[in-house]
Amino acid sequence: MSKIIINPIDTKPADDQQANAAEIERRANAMVIKTQMDLEAAASYVGGIKTYFKKLVTLRKGMTDPLDEARKKTMDLFRPIIAVIESAERKIKQQMVDYGVTQRRIQAEQQRKLDADTEKKRVAAQEKADAARAAGDEKKAARFEEKAEAVPPATVIADRVEKVAGLAMRKDWKYDIIDDSLIPKKYWVLDEKMIARAVKNEKDKCDIHGIRVYSIDVPAIGSR
Fold this sequence. Notes:
Blueprint: H1 12-15, H2 18-30, H3 36-134, H4 138-150, H5 192-202
């Protein structure tokens, strides 16, 4: 039996950064840029913040990497077990669906035969009535018409699949695309990520009808 061991995580490195974060926030709130000198000072300070941020990322990863690794190992342990169980459930459910489809098809065929037999009796009586009327025997024609009208409707076959305790069947509606040119516009999803990539790559040369391409100036001091 294997074990996943997570050593105690010392939170002091994170606790020690609280005061630094508060000081950075205080200075950011107090900062006012009105001159070129102010702008240069702000740029220098932002550069320092970015350097400090990299330090925080390193500290954070030192704490979270063991947790991430333990989580990955745990997921790997359960993944094959869950896969087997889900596969078994799908197989059973598919057999249940197949059984229901087969029974409904049998039921429909039996109902069709009963309906056809009933219609055959009615048509036979009506044909005799028509023949009698053509021969001038109105009484006989009326008698067979009464028989035609008196043919009882076909018996409706009860569902072949009876209710099972604890089992509820729901209708799972699906669709197939027949002609995508007929699908209303409201069902189309705009790929904004693709548009953003095109704008970023092509810049002012980007020519996509229906959008406005523009730029804004943002500080670019190093990178995280």
